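New to this. Please check this fold:
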Amino acid sequence: MSSRAPLLRTYVVQRGFRGFSSSTSRLADQHFRLVVVGGGSGGCGTASKFASKLGQGQVAVIEPTTQHYYQPLWTLVGGGIKSLENSGRPMESVLPKKATWIKDKVSSFDPVNSSLQVEGGDRITYDFLVVAVGLQLRYDKIKGLPEAFNTPGVGSNYSPLYVENTAKAIKDFQSGGTAVFTFPNSPIKCAGAPQKIMYIAQEAFKLEGKEANIQYYTSLPVLFGVKKYADALWKVIGERKNINVNLRHHLVEVKPETKEAIFENLDTQEKVSQHYDMLHITPPMDTPAVLSENKDLTNSAGFLEVDINTLQHVRFPNVFGIGDCTSVPTAKTAAAVAAQLGIMRKNLGAALEGKEPQAKYDGYTSCPLVTGKSTCILAEFDFQAPPQPLETFPFNQAKERRLMYFMKANVMPSLYWWGMTKGWWEGPSFFRKAFRFGMSS
């Protein structure tokens, strides 16, 4: 573990509003006690936890974008229920005021020397590093994209560029048409989202009296990875009559001129052509190349190779990871990041004090499976093989409930902005234990 004293050199910073430091000036060979790469939920939450503790100028956040989005809201944006504007805030409003914001991208990691380089050319060294770069969307892996997004009926809730296309496609859908929804052959953010929008669309069509042929194509051999909730979703599909599920198929091409989506059967390699009038695309995803191509940091799949319990890197003890970019085998959701923030607080905090990390992540994650404009199945589970339910409330969460929808649409966004990005919300484990204690007393 790195123990060298920081070699501080003077540099000029610009003062952003709220008083935090942002920098676009030369930081050559600048040293920080803690560097966080990524300004998403995990990066913001981690920086917020440690910036006040370590003091002004001791924590740097490297993030090039100026807008921070609460991405779980995009299911409702694509469904025409919420606005895209309500899902985003300026990056400077969610970063901690005592952190230094470096508006740049990392061009290379050098964990052997506890350093990294940014695209602007500066070399930055650290005592500790937290990698929170998330996943990147790979629309380019599907032939015909992204060009097809410029044609009627094609949208994607995974990007702020295309999520409003989805809402328009639902609104403009004509009775008797075919609506197609996809799940790719790769790890993705929130594995329930590809079918959430399907249920919202199906309900919208029904309320407007529009007949619809709905096709769901998924690369998975199951509808959902946790049997309890998969069974509940099969029941929902059975009750709605007009949804057809095609397992083990992934999208390989879109032909907007003929309104065809081409799928490959992953078992037979047979190509299947599916007509569409509406097409919602969930793209393949992977970690950014700057991470995936660094073999010192990653496993064979390109994910940051951390201990799945402590979140500490398996080869570099002064490196930790959080969120979607890590090798932790749990579903990649904001809820998982919240739970991991509690582990990060304890284990990175211990490492900063020269102690061994002791806290263990239990794999908690959650996926609010929206089944319409007022109902939701709140799936909560762990990372066992196979995953097992890890529910908070003292009732069966595998049922559609209006209360769970209210939480998804109205409570969770506020909890995210005021709790999670500030480093305060660490998931519902306290409430889960309290409910269980009440039931046993």
The radius of gyration is 22 Å. The chain has ten helices and 23 strands. The chain has a mean pLDDT of 93.
